[in-house]
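ok so for the tutorial part 2 we go from a plain amino acid sequence to predicted structure tokens. step 1 is just haveing the sequence, like this:
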Amino acid sequence: MPSLYAIASRFAGPGIGQTAFRAATGLWEAGLLGRLVALGHEPTAVAEDRIVDVWFPPRRALWFLDDKRFYREKNRRFDRVCRRQLGPAWDVVHLWNSQATTTARRARALERRLIIDRASTHIVTQTRLLVDAYAREGVRYEPTYRETIERCVEEYALADLVLTPSPLSYQSFLDQGFDARRLVRCPFGADLARFTPREKPPARFRAVFVGQLGVRKGVLTLLEAWRRARLDGELWLIGGEEPVIAERLRGWWDDPSVRWLGIRADVPDLLRASSVFVFPSVEEGSALVTYEAMACGLPLIVTAEAGSVARDGVEARVVPAHDVDALAAALTRMAEHPDEAWRMGEAARRRVEAFPWSDYGRRIALVHRLLAEGKRATEIQNAIGVKSE
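step 2 — the prediction. this is what the tokens look like for a chain of 389 residues:
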């Protein structure tokens, strides 16, 4: 019962390309991967003759398109190629949300089992949260295209199963009236060999953030909280700037306690050189960087919206999104109680060891196998060993 797995990203590349790599590897090792469609790929154990590469111009070549139009055109091209790969050989078709809607329609018409992977909250919830977040900051924001929202919702309706990674993203579907009998929570994982624990905390308190320096990730809230906390330490910001707030960020450049490190390849080393990982996101599914920070033995300060597997008071301090005072208090607590922070970091490493990427791949393979056998979401959720609560 082979499957078709499709991802409109570079397979085994960064971000969701890495998540897709781990999923498809699980399918490959289980003998279930019949075809992989991707926007290029890195060499992996997956046989080359199983991979179909879709070419699309790089972002820099289409500089005249804004991000939303660029991704819409990329997904349209990807969708056309995916649709041509459908045939009688595949029992299960696994697509990422909004990337291949006509393929999803065709899969249903051919009576294939259809999985839609949604790495974030429900598209309606996500759009509402982002519109609110940008409005709070007084930043002009163009909401998600109505066409994109409609395609996402249509795919949910077509799916035999929707996969989503965190309790919050799972709940967002229930809040939108989605049938729990077609919904499964499947958390992501961490590379426990690459992201290894630090040996000791730095002599001087150091908070670190990794991600786009933008509104969605809560960077403006973080900077204001850092200012209010007035700590004797450093804040390291790792990632590229979101263009619409670039001018706002420049107002912080003169603060000697804030270091702007840009996009880096040595993220594991930078995490291990830090005291605490801070990620006050306003909307995620389950941010991969939270798993990585935990694997490096860091305590976390996160929002519930970050979708972390860290638990409040055990491995993390969970603060409300947009709450500058709560975030400043959490930073102060970490700085003033280093022994407690170290214990939370040790607990974080132990916790994330239950979420290796290899287990994620095996869970995905089990989902495919059980879905092909006609099992429903409740049975699949129980079988993969992750509760939906």
